Amino acid sequence: MDDGLNTARLRVNYELAEQVFQKSRIQPTVCYQCRKCTSGCPLTFAMDYPPDRIVRFLILGLEERILRSRTIWVCSSCETCTTRCPNDIDIAGLMDHLKEEAHARGIVPPECRPIHAFHEAFLEDVARRGRVFEAGLLQRYMLTSGAWKSRLADGTLWSEVRTGLALLRKGRLPLLPRGVQARDEIRRIFQGVGDSEAPSDPVHASSGAENADASADPS
Amino acid sequence: METVGYYPGCSLEGTARDYAASIRGVCQMLHVELRELDDWNCCGATAAHSLNRRLAVELPGRNLVLAETQGLSELVVPCALCFNRLKTAEKALLGPESHRYSLQYEGSVRVMDLMDFLTRPERLQWMETHRVRPLEGIRAVCYYGCMVNRPPKITDAPSWENPTNMDALLSTLGARVLDWPFKTDCCGASHSVSRPDLVTTLTGRLLSRALAQGANCIVVSCQMCQANLDMFQERVARELGTALDLPVFYFTELMALALGHPDAASWARRHLVDPVPLLEASGLAV
Fold this sequence. Notes:
The complex is a heterodimer. Helix content of chain A is 58%, strand content 0%. Chain A is mostly helical. Chain A folds into 2 domains: 15-111, no CATH class; 113-195, no CATH class. In chain A, α8 crosses α12 (183-195). Chain B has 2 domains: 2-115, Glutathione S-transferase Yfyf (Class Pi), Chain A, domain 2 (Up-down Bundle), CATH 1.20.1050; 133-281, Rossmann fold (3-Layer(aba) Sandwich), CATH 3.40.50.11810. In chain B, the strands form 2 sheets. In chain B, strands 2-1-3-4 form a 4-stranded parallel β-sheet. Chains A and B meet through α6, α7, α8, α9 and α11 of A and α2, α3, α9 and α10 of B. Chain A: It comes from Desulfacinum infernum DSM 9756. Chain A: This is Heterodisulfide reductase subunit C. Chain A: Pfam families: Fer4_17. Chain A: Residues 193-219 are annotated as: Disordered.
């Protein structure tokens, strides 16, 4: 690569937005950067990039940067951005698409792993019985994700145990799970959607994006 | 007696059993028979739409197909997130991309948010004449949350930035309803388990503002909102260094109280923030 003065520091990959559109049917390129999404977002305080910049990065093709960002996991899917976008971009839907991509490639930033681990534990529970059994799910999440250790370290573990005991006392934590009778139907749904994530789709196949990210510095 | 299909969702079998009990009680008083969807499954919630877009449509979609097969023309949903996911599945399975999914759905089921269903004009009229204990002393802010209203393309909500059906309901029941700007702001939803720090910040904003408006309680129509505002209140109070003590009621609990259901107060006693002092002070404890 030429590092001379006339070299652009950003290598743009316009194909990324097209790939995202093909897969999600969401068109980020119509964004004119009014930042209405960011103005209404309740979680910007915990994000590394506000939502409007995620959209901008997408248009520029900075895939790695987006997939490694906290923003996509911190998004609570409140749908305020999607509702208010004057160009009708489903921004919360984009965040979902990006989480799905990051999940498929196994690149979740460390501070967002609890969020990812909880989603995985939740879906395992659904796959098992067709319904979620909250008491079992919470226990398993705490133990398998190592969340109990961080709670112990920051002193919040006992407050959570107290809350759990209070719920139990008030009859709000049933001890036995209920499930769906037609387990095979649930199994078929999970198996069927698993196939759709085969690594032959265009976003997985892209190779230029990572190099572009490595040399990019739009800020 | 009116019969309607009912999709309770997983939480109403667990931590939101208080909500479930009050819904049963209120519907009985209103002569509405809830026919639970047979063999329903989880809607997939935030986990599914975060990790797998097809799962996020096919899990709730199976319930729509079941309802159609079971001949239910209307499906009432008390959980805001389940409602949102069922509506998302409805749009996806009937839309131009329906070939992406393995389910066949004809679209004969009308998915309805419980509060929408219970606050139809004729019901409000009925309640006005049948309320036995007006909710005097209750100064409420109505908290609608996100998922019943947004995005309107999915929810078909008529007034997503400023919904008013809960306001109208509580006024009919004799409560004083206070205006406030956070009707549809986010409580943090499923982050309560994996990133409780985020929920503490978001609910802290909501609780402080409700107090500043002069509310003595918050009224909700979503069990996730209820859980986050109720279970996190002690922690938020500690962080803010002030007492909060704001009971968080389901709208159905207040309906049951005003309509004189004998078990109404006992459901609300299952909350973590004790509602009894407020109910006693308002002459509503039984």
